[in-house]
Write a structure and sequence with these properties.
Shape: extended
Strand order of the largest sheet: 1-2
Number of domains: 4
Number of strands: 2
GO biological process, one term: DNA transposition
Organism: Araneus ventricosus (Orbweaver spider)
Domain Transposase Tc1-like: 58-105
Protein name: Transposase Tc1-like domain-containing protein
Strand content: under 5%
Helix content: 40-55%
InterPro entries: RNaseH_sf, Transposase_Tc1-like
Largest sheet: 2 strands, parallel
């Protein structure tokens, strides 16, 4: 009742008077709900039934254990095989995240000839980061880059893409755990063409930065 009244716009004092409890209790319960420590029972029983129930989760876990390198599409095909009601790859992906399992996607550079680009900020040149790059130097090459050159770094556009996708979600994430799941889901569903378009934009970025003499380039 506290959570329902607060989410409808009630203040702490109004909620305390309505429920007949202390203001401290309202703050404690609502904060616990925000950070995922408790769940709103009313929200848990409303809406459409889950596409993948407990039995489906057990089946999905068995599929993952049988092939830990399976992609979301492959797992979805296995889940729909012989099923009376099919599920989408997005549903499978979301269920994997809720189960604490990170879904996999196809590797863009299967020949280990990828190029890794970063803006060379100080946190990116820490000893632990450099050591990790050395351990994976056979998988990709770290591209030399100017420090803190945000206009030249396409990752900034990807952050903006994730922000727009999450803000367009309905319903919106209500706590940190849901936000983390939403961001992970949005990241895994970024179209490959989005990456390629950003890579193809690098020549124009360089020209714009040179034209602006290092100032704001519009990217």
């Amino acid at each position: 009742m506290i959570i329902g009244f607060r989410t409808k716009g009630g203040s702490i004092s109004e909620t305390a008077n309505f429920v007949n409890c202390s203001r401290a209790a309202v703050v404690k319960v609502y904060r616990a709900w925000q950070y995922g420590a408790i769940q709103n029972q009313w929200r848990g029983t409303c809406g459409a039934p889950q596409a993948i129930d407990d039995r489906g989760e057990r089946r999905l876990r068995r599929c993952v254990q049988a092939n830990r390198h399976a992609t979301v599409e492959q797992l979805t095909a296995q889940m729909n095989q012989g099923a009376t009601k099919s599920v989408s790859s997005t549903t499978v992906q979301r269920t994997l995240l809720c189960m604490g399992l990170r879904s996999r996607r196809l590797v863009i550079f299967p020949q280990n000839n990828g190029i890794y680009q970063q803006d060379n900020a100080r946190r990116h040149t820490a000893c632990s980061v450099c050591a990790w790059f050395e351990e994976h130097q056979d998988e990709f090459t770290v591209l030399p880059w100017l420090a803190n050159s945000l206009d030249l770094n396409p990752i900034e556009n990807l952050w903006d893409h994730l922000d727009q996708v999450v803000r367009a979600m309905d319903p919106q994430p209500r706590n940190l755990a849901q936000l983390a799941t939403a961001l992970e889901l949005a990241r895994l569903n970024i179209p490959v063409n989005t990456f390629r378009n950003l890579i193809d934009s690098l020549p124009a970025r360089l020209a714009a930065v040179r034209s602006a003499k290092g100032g704001y380039s519009g990217f």
